[in-house]
Structure prediction request, 310 residues.
Amino acid sequence: MNQRQLESFLAIAKHGSFAAAAERLFITQSAISARIKELEDDLGVELFDRSLKKVQLTIKGRELVQYAEQISVLFDEIRSKVGTAGAQSGVVRIGVVELVAITWMSKLLAVLRKEFPAVTVEFEVALRPPLLERMRSGNLDMAIIIGEVTLEKCLGQEFASAHLGTASFAWMASWQFNVGKGILHAKDLRKLPLIYQGTESFMNGVISDWLSHPDSRKQHGTSCNGLGSIVSLVEAGVGIGLLPVTQYEPLLKAKKLKILRTEPAGIDIPFSVLYPQRGEANLFARIAELCVQVSTFAHPEKSALRTKKI
Prediction:
C-alpha cells in the first residue's frame, strides 16, 4: 500500500469514476486501474462495485475512505511542516466570482506559481450559487465568493473561511440617462429599467432588498450573468445597474458612466474564500492566506481564518 494508490482510491470515491479520477490526477485510466488492483490485492478485498453503471464503494471501500483521508492529511502535514513549499504537488480547483476574475485573480495565480511551482491551479468563473454547489459536491477545492458564508448552507461538513474585504457598489447609468436632479429612493429606482445579474445571483438578492421588492426579476429590466455585459448595457443607456465603483472608475472619469444620487448612497459587499477541512487542508489554508494578502478589496485588517459548518 502506498500514497499513490490511496490518492487514486480517494479520487475515484470523490469523483465517481475511474475516468474522472484519471483526468483529475493527470494520469491514464489504465494507470488508475492498476493502482486500485494493487491496493485491492494488498488488502485482499474489493473496494469498488464495478457491476453497476457508476462504480460504487463496497462496504470495505467505505470503511477505507476515513483511513485514507487521515493518511492524506498526514502526508500533507509532512510536506507542509518538514518539506519545502515546492514539494507540494497536484491540482487545485478554485472557483471564483467574476469580479475577482477581472481584478486580482491573475495576481493570485502569479503568487501561487512562485510559491507552489509543482501545483497546477485550475480556475472556474461562475456565480455564487453554482460555486457553492460544486464545493458541496467536491468538484471544487476552494471557492472565492461574494458575500459571507452563512449557516443555512449547513450540510454537516466543516469548512474554513476568511474575509477578503469589501467592494463598494453604487447605482450607475450612462451619462445621457436622465433621472432628474433629486435623490433617488427605493420607490424611484423601482420605476427605472434595471440591468441585473442572474436570476439566482447574490447581487439580485441585494437589489431586491434595496428596492424593498420581493423579486427584482419582476422589475422592468434585463438579466445578464456577465458583469461585462451589464456594464455595456448600462453604458448604452438601456437601464441602470448596481456596479462596483473602483473597477469602473475609468468609465466614470471618462463620463461614460455616472453614479446616481441615491439614498443610501451605496453599499459595501463582502467577499470570502472558503475550503473544506479535509484532504490537503494545510495547502488550502496557505492558499487562503495568500488570497487575503493579494485581494484588492478594502479590508481594514487581515482577518483570521474561521472554521464553521456550512
About this structure: The first helix runs from residue 3 to 15. The two ends are 34 Å apart (CA to CA). Confidence is low (pLDDT under 50) at residues 151-156, 302-310. The chain is about 40% helix and 20% strand.
